[in-house]
């Protein structure tokens, strides 16, 4: 059994119970919880805060630490996900090791889920605080891990987001390896005519980007290439780039940016697609660029293959792309008749709404249809039931444009496995947290931007690329990374049988099997480890210790749960 505290040290635990305005105090009784906390062993100080995370709340905690010589702090409040750094920093500023802090969540885990049950919620909050205090007694001081970062980046994908990311990093003095699987850089923008809402020529825009990348002294471009192997962790990745499937080269980089883009859904011969009278939106872009529309009566059918049972999501950019193209057609030939058949209109933002208005004013007709009654092609005409007019309409059509959604690229599963980063249900790359870490993966040092992540406009893709490179630059410029000292380690090398189970299960590739004098053993890479506990829970030899979540700490917590 580990010692509770240094033999000379007396445990002095402070407990702070937060009201979170009415988020907690509205559904349970914090006063009763605080009074109860004062009866727990080694608790020498208790205080209620209206908002513990506010400046005044933090100051109260810091003053209490100093004035009462507290050596453990328990805050019963909200979620560690957002506020743990605040309270750890408060402890540190008051001279206490930040890992002597224990967070008890009486909001998400209690008040919010037991609304209307104040008595029971108060009782549960007391249980949670008792458990937190029990664990706090076994906490140990810890120091952050600092590791070197190779000031170089691997950018995967040479479309607009990958090019933007590469240029942004290279202009900050970072060496960039840019890998593109096609022969040419530029991605989908090479096939687009004009961008919305700016009306910039897409091909000219992307050509300038490509020229800047190819001529940049700090960017090395690998076309016809893929990433075939990856080892390492933030600051220290070794990637194997395979060019033409033959030449292989290992590059050493500190971060990786995934910018693999997306593709347009190919539905085959739906609606009589023939590439002549029935074409896709991308083919329309090419015709507009070449000035070869060859039609007076154009009908665009939106949401073809999107927002249907097999593909529920909205692709977000096709509405504006079709509206932009409708305006271009009318500008070239005001006599042309353009109909847009839609289920919903996704025209978010002031600029996009202005374009929608412009399309309507220039005579583009919008007809709403429903999923249950899709348009029907019939002898050079399109029949559609307008849900708003409540009747069927026949429209002459020399050219039908199928507006299909963006879908994820081929090969994303392999890349996801290689990088050990997840995909969502639609096979787009999934960020660590939709609001708090929208450009990060859960694995540190790997970022995502552009349509690899989700259908996005060109301007959104550029913004995301700049955001991802800003995130990555914090490590690349400082050339070091500081990570939380919560990681797993071998408790006893002799216990490890070298079976490799832990290494195969670790979701962050943080365990290597290495040859030692005592045979093959697991070796944890502290800087890559997220402290998730998977390895510790799976090792049948109990050879792995979880720092900051030791057996003693967790057993004390569980015992406290049943000792109320
Ligand atoms: Fe060693 Fe346990 Fe990992 Fe097997 S699971 S390699 S015994 S630490
Ligand atoms: Fe991997 Fe999780 Fe074990 Fe760390 S704690 S080595 S992240 S399985």
Output the CATH homologous superfamily of the largest domain. FAD/NAD(P)-binding domain
Q: Give me the CATH architecture of the largest domain, please.
A: 3-Layer(bba) Sandwich
Number of helices: 16
Tally of domains: 4
Distance between the termini: 23 Å
Q: How would you write the strand order of the largest sheet?
A: 8-7-6-12-23
Strand elements, count? 28
- Envelope shape: globular
Bound compounds, please?
iron/sulfur cluster
* CATH class category of the largest domain: Alpha Beta
As a percent range, the share of helical residues equals 25-40%
- Kindly state the mean pLDDT as a whole number? 94
| CATH fold-level name of the largest domain | FAD/NAD(P)-binding domain
Radius of gyration: 29 Å
**Content-based structural category:** alpha/beta
| Biggest sheet architecture | 5 strands, parallel
Low-confidence stretches: 1-5
The amount of beta strand, in percent, is 15-25%
Description of the structure:
It is globular, with a radius of gyration of 29 Å. Mean pLDDT is about 95; it is low at about 1-5. The chain is of the alpha/beta class and about 575 residues long. It is built from 16 helices and 28 strands. It has a five-stranded parallel beta sheet with strand order 8-7-6-12-23, with helices on one face. The longest helix has 21 residues, at about 460-480. The protein has four domains: about 15-140, 3-Layer(aba) Sandwich (Rossmann fold); about 150-265 and about 405-480, 3-Layer(bba) Sandwich (FAD/NAD(P)-binding domain), CATH 3.50.50.60; about 265-405, FAD/NAD(P)-binding domain (3-Layer(bba) Sandwich), CATH 3.50.50.60; about 490-545, 2-Layer Sandwich (Alpha-Beta Plaits), CATH 3.30.70. One iron/sulfur cluster (SF4) binds near residues 496, 522, 539 and 543.
């Amino acid at each position: 059994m580990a010692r509770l505290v240094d033999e000379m040290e007396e445990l002095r635990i402070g407990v702070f119970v937060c009201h979170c305005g009415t988020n907690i105090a509205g559904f349970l009784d914090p006063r009763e919880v605080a009074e109860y906390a004062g009866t727990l062993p080694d608790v020498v100080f208790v205080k209620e805060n209206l908002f513990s995370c506010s400046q005044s709340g933090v100051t109260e905690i810091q003053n209490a630490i100093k004035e009462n010589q507290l050596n453990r702090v328990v805050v019963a409040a909200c979620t560690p996900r957002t506020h743990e750094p605040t309270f750890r920093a408060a402890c540190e500023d008051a001279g206490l090791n930040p890992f002597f802090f224990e967070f008890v969540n009486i909001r998400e885990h209690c008040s919010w889920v037991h609304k209307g049950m104040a008595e029971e919620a108060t009782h549960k909050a007391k249980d949670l605080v008792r458990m937190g205090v029990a664990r706090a007694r076994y906490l140990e001081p810890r120091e952050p891990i600092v590791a070197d970062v190779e000031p170089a980046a691997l950018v995967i994908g040479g479309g607009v987001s990958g090019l933007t990311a590469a240029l942004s990093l290279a202009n900050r003095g970072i060496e960039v390896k840019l890998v593109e699987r096609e022969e040419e850089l530029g991605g989908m923008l090479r096939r687009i005519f004009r961008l919305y809402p700016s009306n910039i020529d897409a091909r000219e825009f992307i050509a300038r980007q490509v020229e800047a990348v190819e001529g940049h002294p700090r960017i090395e471009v690998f076309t016809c290439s893929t990433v075939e192997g990856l080892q390492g962790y933030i600051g220290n990745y070794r990637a194997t780039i395979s060019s033409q499937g033959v030449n292989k080269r290992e590059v050493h980089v500190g971060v990786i940016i995934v910018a693999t883009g997306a593709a347009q859904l190919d539905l085959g011969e739906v609606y009589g697609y023939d590439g002549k009278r029935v074409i896709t939106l991308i083919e329309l872009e090419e015709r507009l660029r070449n000035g070869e529309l060859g039609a007076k009566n154009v009908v665009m059918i939106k949401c073809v293959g999107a927002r249907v049972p097999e593909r529920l999501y909205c692709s977000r950019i096709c509405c504006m792309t079709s509206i932009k193209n409708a305006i271009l057609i009318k500008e070239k030939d005001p006599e042309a008749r353009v109909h847009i058949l839609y289920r919903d209109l996704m025209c978010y933002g002031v600029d996009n709404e202005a374009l929608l208005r412009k399309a309507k004013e220039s005579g583009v007709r919008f007809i709403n249809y429903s999923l249950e009654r899709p348009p029907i092609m019939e002898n050079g005409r399109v029949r559609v039931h307008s849900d708003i007019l409540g009747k069927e309409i026949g429209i002459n059509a020399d050219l039908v444009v199928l507006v299909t959604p963006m879908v994820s690229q081929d090969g994303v599963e392999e890349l996801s496995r290689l990088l050990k980063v997840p995909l969502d249900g639609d096979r787009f790359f999934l960020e660590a947290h939709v609001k708090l870490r929208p450009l990060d993966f859960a694995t540190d040092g790997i970022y995502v931007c552009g349509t690899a992540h989700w259908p996005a406009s060109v301007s959104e893709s550029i913004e995301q690329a700049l955001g991802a490179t800003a995130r990555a630059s914090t490590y690349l410029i400082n050339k070091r990374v500081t990570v939380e000292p919560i990681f797993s380690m071998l408790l006893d090398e002799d216990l490890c049988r070298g079976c490799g189970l832990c290494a195969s299960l670790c979701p962050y590739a943080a365990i290597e099997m290495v040859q030692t004098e005592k045979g093959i053993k697991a070796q944890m890479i502290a800087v890559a480890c997220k402290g998730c506990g998977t390895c510790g829970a799976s090792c049948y030899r109990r050879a792995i210790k979880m720092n900051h979540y030791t057996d003693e700490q967790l057993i004390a917590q569980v015992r406290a749960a049943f000792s109320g």
